[in-house]
Amino acid sequence: MEEIEEFWGRKIRASWWAATASLFLIVASPLWLFWNWIGLEYFGGSYLSEIAGLRRDGILAFSFQYLPRASTKASQGYIAWLCFQATLYYFLPGPISTGQLTPAGHLLKYKTNGLSAWTMTHCLAFGAAYLGYLDLTIIADNWEGLLVASNVYGFVLPALCLVKGYVAPSYVGDCKYSGSLVADYFIGVELNPRLGELFDLKLFHNGRPGIIAWTLIDASYAAIQFRDHGYISNSMWIVLILHYTYVLDFFVNEDWYLRTIDMCHDHFGYYLGLGCMAAVPNIYTIQCQYLARYPVNLSHTQAAAILVLGMGGYAIFRSANHQKDIIRSSNGQCDIWGRQAQYMRCTYKTEDGRKHESLLLCSGWWGFSRHANYLGDLMQAFALGLACSSTQFLPWAYTFFLSAIMINRLPRDEARCRRKYGKDWRTYCAKVRWRLLPGVY
């Protein structure tokens, strides 16, 4: 895609290659999600056995026999879930937070009541299970139909948002049209599609149905392991601890999420729509899905080391993001790691012609590397793969999926900063040489 340098927002014309790549990902993404489920359900969690089965049966026979089927019960449950989360998003009280300035100069307000929604949802689910009104295994027992429903919605949602972007965009100045219908569907037209003043479709779908479901799905598969094997393995407990820590951190710091690349730069299309509605509940829970079927019992030393690695990654992720927030909220008047923060004052311009100022931190984790928060994310992902202690590739799917996202996101993030800050960004890169890990990358 050709980037136009006048402003730092997404300015693109989709080349034939970009449109072709978009079409490939649109088709391949749900097939990969189905492939993982088939491997877990029928082939012992082994890609090699699955490939052998595909070669033996042929594509048509294999697909007819193994592809997941929709079910009325799961589809109705999925629709009810979406409606329930939308109701909580709209009606639950919560703080009104301010996002980051958009390329067109809009400073948007968001209702950040995610922690209340997560807490209410889990209290209702666990309370109903405790009282005997709900079996926690219901999600895992109906996962085949839920997998299909989430993928169907992941296709329909960006199509509706595409039509809205063409017909009734919320903020015209932040809309980007690539000249390719396929690329617009994949990348998205609107930066912040909204229904009314505060119902932000991107924040809702990025941060409600999928991520709240994440920890409920984990709990359901832990219940399956207990039902089928009579105990919950220490590897399952490690995954649960790391996942619940990450998700709770997301909601406790939901205001921080408004300043991430997802919210500030990525437009809302298939990439985020299917990613948050289908990939998150399916790929992010892959370790629990695997361990429910194939329990792994780690030694005490192994369990402790993996937990330390995962929580260490979380600590880096959280402290790096906190440092970036505090330097800007204090206008540079703060200490980082016990010393006066070192930073650069940079200017940038929005498309309305106005100049603005921002601070780039050059000490702490942000002096260590330009994306230390990504390093923390990757450490957690690696620990989750280790918890499965498997020679199979499938339980590592999340680790490689997140790595691919980071490999894609890191240069996009840097390109956006380069366009936004110009020569100031080049000066910053000279001060902080390494992108991710000093001496490596």
From TrEMBL:
Its EC number is 1.3.1.21. It holds the Pfam family ERG4_ERG24. GO terms for molecular function: 7-dehydrocholesterol reductase activity. It is an enzyme of class 1 (oxidoreductase). The chain crosses the membrane at residues 16-38, 75-92, 113-133, 145-167, 231-248, 268-286, 298-317. It catalyses: 7-dehydrodesmosterol + NADPH + H(+) = desmosterol + NADP(+); cholesterol + NADP(+) = 7-dehydrocholesterol + NADPH + H(+). It is found in: Membrane. GO terms for biological process: brassinosteroid biosynthetic process; cholesterol biosynthetic process. GO terms for cellular component: endoplasmic reticulum membrane. Pathway: Steroid biosynthesis; cholesterol biosynthesis. This is 7-dehydrocholesterol reductase. It comes from Heterodermia speciosa.
